[in-house]
Amino acid sequence: MKILIADDSSVSRDLLGTMVRKWGYDVVSVSDGTHAWEVLSGPDAPRLAILDWMMPGLTGPEVCEKVRDKGGESYTYILLLTGRTQKEDVIEGMDAGADDYVVKPFDQQELRVRLRAGRRIVELQDELLTAREKFRQQATHDALTGLKNRAYIRQILAERMDAARSSSIPVGVIMLDLDRFKLVNDTYGHAVGDAVLIAAAQRIQSVLSDSDVVGRDGGEEFLLVSSRPSLDLAALAETVRQAIAAEPVVVGELTLPVTASLGYARLCPRADADILLRAADEALYRAKHNGRNRIEPGQVEGC
Q1: 73 is catalytic
Q2: C-beta atoms surrounding 47 within 10 Å
Q3: What is the chain's mean pLDDT, rounded?
Q4: CATH classification (class only), 150-297
Q5: Residue 251 — very low, low, confident or very high, per pLDDT cuts 50/70/90?
Q6: Residue spans per domain, the chain
Q7: Is the torsion defined by CA of 184, 190, 193, 195 positive or negative?
Q8: What DSSP string describes 235-267?
């Protein structure tokens, strides 16, 4: 783990640097508080810092205050080195945002133990952030395909529609359903069906732009939300249809042709999300009824 050592004494810096390198840390050394703040506020900043209290530029407590004011998810554990022993001085340093302090002259083993405690805190915080991101991913994404899940893709649609009402950027939706997917599950089993769903999701994503978002709306049905200045839903739907049907999906020794039926609808001023989705769903039903592996436009009520 990387650690910052900030001390205006070259002797102290060298001594500390040699010491903590033996303990397995990667050392970044600076000679004043201003440079310490630059390092701690920069990219890939050290997560541990040993700051001398009195330095040119910013003092150790002043650097602590700036680090805490900056905030951010990645926590920086700061240990102050000081010759001050009065209770008031200790309180001042801790109030400024320091996590711990060591009084000069310090005992090497005491410093090592305190740094080890700081490292554990940083590592635990990283584990919590990783767990939070995992839970967020599970709450907003489909576990099988990795696409947005039903609730999240519909939330994105609502947000895009709200934004569209105050801008000139149009919004449209495409609903698509894999053709005869139940037959795949019934004939070859759900493991093969899952492989087909994953392949279809990847093919859909491969032809989308940054303005397009796709989610698994349930079963073998997908919902695509698009908002771009020049929105051609028919062309986009046809591109997606062709991408899905371009080649069979190979699962083990099986070679399975895969196609999809698609319906699309575009937002108009008097439509809400339910109306837009209903229009796209009805168009999808017509595509199924009219022979599958095709696209159909939806008519939004009142537009």
Answers
A1: no
A2: 21
A3: 92
A4: alpha beta
A5: very high
A6: 2-139, 150-297
A7: negative
A8: HHHHHHHHHHHSSPEEETTEEE---EEEEEEE-
Please choose, from the candidates 226, 210, 229, 228, the residue with its C-alpha nearest in 3D space to the C-alpha of residue 262: 226
Cα gap 261→284, rounded to integer Å: 6
Residue 261 forms beta bridges with which residues?
A: 177
Q: Are 174 and 280 in contact (CB under 8 A)?
A: yes
Q: How far apart are CA 249 and CA 213, in angstroms?
A: 23
- Residue 32's Cα: distance from chain center in Å? 35
How far is it, in rounded angstroms, from Cα 205 to Cα 209? Answer: 8
229 has pLDDT over 90: no
Do the domains at 2-139 and 150-297 have one common CATH topology? no
pTM: 0.66
* Residues 3, 30 contacting (CB under 8 angstroms): no
Q: Is the CB of residue 48 less than 8 Å from the CB of residue 115?
A: yes
Instruction: Among 77-81, 181-185, 228-232, 259-263, name the one with the lowest average pLDDT.
Output: 228-232
- Would residue 127 be called left, alpha or beta, if left means φ above 0 and alpha means ψ between -120 and 50 degrees? alpha
The conformation of residue 63, written as its DSSP 8-state character, comes to H
Domain 2-139 top-level CATH class: alpha beta
| Catalytic residue, candidates 62, 65, 220, 282 | 220
Question: Three-state SS for 167?
Answer: coil
Q: In 275-300, which positions are buried (b, 16+ CB within 10 angstroms) versus exposed (e)?
A: bbbbbbbbbbbbbbeeeebbbbbbeb
The amino acid sitting at 223 is L
How would you class 2 by CB atoms within 10 Å of its CB: exposed for 0-12, middle for 13-18, buried for 19 or more? middle
Determine the average pLDDT of the residues in 222-238: 93
> Is 80 exceeded by the pLDDT of residue 50?
yes
